[in-house]
Each structure stands twice: as structure tokens, then as C-alpha cells.
Design brief:
The protein has 100 residues and is mainly alpha-helical. The protein is 66% helix and 0% strand.
């Protein structure tokens, strides 16, 4: 069974996501949305129960997805290794979140 990241490591994960977000914004400014999406999907947070990490990562992935104008051909641009990551991101985002 997968181990979950403890809350004290959540801050480190958030910091990595923030760094990744800056890189993605740079790629989007260079009109490279597919590269931005690949960057967003790479190094997705490890198994964590921390909702902040999951939410922060989803925001980054969503930003990159929304920049792609031709969504129908999105999968032709991505390597199959990214399909699973993208699907997990979508599934997690569609589940109801507990109220805080």
C-alpha cells in the first residue's frame, strides 16, 4: 500500500508546485502550451492526504489545460505516460471535497 506524505512535508510540496507554476507561466508566455501541460503533469505530488497540495497541483494542471486551444488533438501531443497522470488529476478533482 502507498505511503502518504506527512503534513510537515506538505510545505515542501507546495513550494515545488509554486516553482513549477512559475515555469508553466513562462512556457505559456512563450506560446508552448503542450510543454506547459507536460511540465504541470510531471512530478505530480506524491500520495498525500493534504488537500492544499492536491488543490495547488490541480490549479497548475488546469491552467495549462485551459491554454490549449485544440483540446481534441491534445492526446496526439502527449506521450501515453501522461494519460494516467491526467486521468488521476481529473478523477480527484471531480470528487466531492470535505467542508473545512
Amino acid at each position: 500500500m502507498a505511503e502518504f506524505v506527512e503534513a510537515d512535508n506538505a510545505e515542501a510540496i507546495i513550494t515545488r508546485i509554486e516553482h513549477k507554476s512559475r515555469k508553466i507561466e513562462s512556457l505559456l508566455k512563450q506560446h508552448k502550451p503542450v510543454e506547459a501541460l507536460k511540465t504541470a503533469l510531471e512530478g505530480s505530488p506524491p500520495n498525500t492526504k493534504d488537500e492544499r497540495c492536491k488543490s495547488a497541483n490541480w490549479i497548475v494542471v488546469h491552467r495549462a489545460i485551459m491554454a490549449i486551444k485544440d483540446v481534441d488533438s491534445l492526446f496526439s501531443y502527449l506521450d501515453p505516460e501522461y494519460y494516467d497522470i491526467l486521468m488521476k488529476s481529473q478523477l480527484w478533482n471531480s470528487q466531492p471535497k470535505p467542508s473545512l
